[in-house]
Every structure is written in structure tokens, then in C-alpha cells.
Amino acid sequence: DAGVIQSPRHEVTEMGQEVTLRCKPISGHNSLFWYRQTMMRGLELLIYFNNNVPIDDSGMPEDRFSAKMPNASFSTLKIQPSEPRDSAVYFCASSWDQGLGGSYHSYEQYFGPGTRLTVT
Amino acid sequence: GQQVMQIPQYQHVQEGEDFTTYCNSSTTLSNIQWYKQRPGGHPVFLIQLVKSGEVKKQKRLTFQFGEAKKNSSLHITATQTTDVGTYFCSGTYKYIFGTGTRLKVLA
Predict the structure, then answer these.
(1) How far does B42 lie from chain A, in Å, by closest CA?
(2) In Å, how far is B8's CA from the nearest CA of chain A?
(3) Which of A14, A24, B43, B99 could form a Cys-Cys staple with A5, CB 3.0–4.6 A?
(4) Which residues of chain A lie closer than 8 angstroms to B30, CB-CB?
(5) Contact check, Cβ <8 Å, B94/A56
(6) Is A33 helix (H, G, I), strand (E, B) or coil?
(7) What is the pLDDT along chain B (107 residues), one digit of tens a residue?
């Protein structure tokens, strides 16, 4: 299995530009997560999809951020317009989650290699 | 909202010394996961604990889930240089990750 695939691995862009990060989860997994990691804020959950449906997007910083999962094998995280404070490593992760009566019993998350975003 | 704090934030140990990191949640957790992230890498799953008071071992690593399911610990016996990295706990109900403990092992 190739694992979770993310692209690009590195992105350098100027403030105001649109940035699109891509993720291919592990085949058979039904949950996909986008995280952002910075020294100051640690590892933050941005959004979580289950069966391609956004379940919790409370971590999305603001309207400049949007995420989609058009099918079980692809997701995008878009930032428009980008700002220097968006500079971080963005991780995508996937897992098999089984929701039982409102309490999610999740299995391990498999993380992709991350995209290091620098906004100048 | 739910918060998951880890202590210490940093730990430097001499190779061969033991190491422990603690994870504390403001709310009861359904289960807890531990991950390790090597410098420049991505988090890698280590283990999941589900039951109150559960203890699991992986070679030199011992994981414990508190009786109240609000805290957990990871203990490494006789650290090695390969143990270097940041250790995170995650309260899986809201997929919130702890603040992490960065371990440095001095040879």
C-alpha cells in the first residue's frame, strides 16, 4: 500500500495567491482529516470527513479556508487568499472510523508526509 | 472546549535513562491514542488504549490509561537515540492532539 499521498510536498507562494493542497487517502479508509502544524499552535485539526461528508469543520480558521472531498479517493484543502500566517505544515490523515451511538471508536490514523507551505 | 495538555513540553535525557510523558484531558476520553513524530517527519501511530486503567507494553514502551479516562502516560525504559522525536497523545472523540513532548536523547 502506498500510504496517504499528499501533493505538493513543498509550496512557496506570495501573499494573496490561491493555494490548493491535495490528498489521496489509503484505499478502504472512510475517514479523512486535515491538520495544520506550527510551532506555536501544535497539531490542529482543521476538518474531518466521514464517508466523504464533512463532519466537523470547527477548526477551519476562517472563510479563506475551504476543503472538499468529491470522492473516497481524493480531497483538497484550498486557501484563498493566502496570508503569511498560513505558513505551516499541513498534514492529511486517513483512518477507518466506526461511529457507535454518537461516540466515535476510531482506529489508528495514517498520516501523509505533509505539505510545507510558505507564504511570503 | 476539550483540551489535552502534555507535560513536560521538552525533555532531554542521557541515553539509557528512563523517560515519561503525561497526557491530561479536561474531559473524559472514550479512548486515547499515542503517536510519535520524528524530526522532519509525520506522526506515526504507536498504540490505542480503550479501557479504564488499561496498561499496554511495546518492548521498552509502557502505556497507561487512567482510571477516570482523563489522563494517560507513556514511559520509555532505557532510552536510545532512536527514541528521539515528539510524542503526542490524541483524545479520539474530537481528534484533538495534545501539545506534545519533545524528547532529545544525548548519547
Answers:
(1) 6
(2) 14
(3) A24
(4) 103-105
(5) yes
(6) strand
(7) 667 899 999 999 999 999 999 999 988 888 899 999 999 999 999 999 999 999 999 999 999 999 999 999 999 999 999 999 999 999 866 678 999 999 999 99
